[in-house]
Amino acid sequence: MTQPKTQTDEQRLKLDGKKTMPKADADKLKVFTGRANPLLAQKICDSLGIPLGRGATELFPDGELIVKVDEDVRGRDCYIIQPTSHPINAHLMELFIWIDCLKRASASRVTAVIPYFGYARQDRKDEGRTPITAKLVANLIERAGADRVVSVDLHAAQVQGFFDIPVDHLSASPVLIKWFKSLKLSNRVFVSPDVGNVKRAQVYANLLGGEICIIDKRRKSGKDIEAKHIIGDVEGKNVLMVDDMITTAGTMTEACKLLRKNGVKDIYISATHAVFAPPAMERLNSCEFTKIAVTDTIPIGTRAEPIKDRLVVLSVAELLGEAINRIHNNASVSALFKDDSGRALSE
After folding, report:
1. Where are the beta strands (DSSP E) in 161-282?
2. What is the pLDDT of residue 260?
3. Catalytic one among 18, 217, 261, 265?
């Protein structure tokens, strides 16, 4: 007698075209937040259907931090949400203390969820007598006691290899692809603002359809960029420009100037991380782009007031919540980044 076919894990996860998972158990799964992005942490918990873990960071008069967890975490699977955005060193130190606190409270596993991973750009020695700070930060996170790390769109993917613990490198592509589709643009071209982002632009072009162009960028200093040439045809086309982060906005604004000189129609910019360090707002405010979309890996607050009418903030809360639930249930995380035909939605 033929045995009835049983669903595989992936079939159960994608039942009726939807990524479904067992409901999170609020007693076994605990999600806490540092001070870097509590709103994102609350959204993640809302997507999981569990309350945000009770705990807080307090400041001593001399500036030292103390973390106090106000519920039992013994034997629990714990996650601490803490992007290492500005002020990066303070947020890093707070992350270390949270990890140490949870480990000493006998959590069964502590996962550092770092939506924006600072220091990732310092991943190699460009010249003599300089540090590889990305490796140093990886060592410190491990030494603090983290069992696992989750991050979104690392500036350099090889940073995963700096860890000797599991790293889930998520991509914001499902969120950004949904936004790109909502624009319903015809005659579009995906532009990489520099050579380093060519692969990222190629992924979007393959999935959504469209040509790809590359801007030849020359860096004069840490703040100053010069866009020299465009490789490809952009005249009369709608431009979709993709990057992993916008820091001082030098790359993006110089790219926009060059694109305008070459007769593009509309310019839509997307980036995962809205670092927006000075003088980003001044540059973007005077830049001729149509819309800019960023995610909430870093809290934006009032920093983007000058461009609020052209700014779209997309949330990665559901993406992170689903990833956390899958890790907790020992299910595939990579399945999140494949479309119905099995094509990858990330690099």
Report:
1. 167-170, 188-192, 211-219, 225-231, 238-246, 267-274
2. 96
3. 217
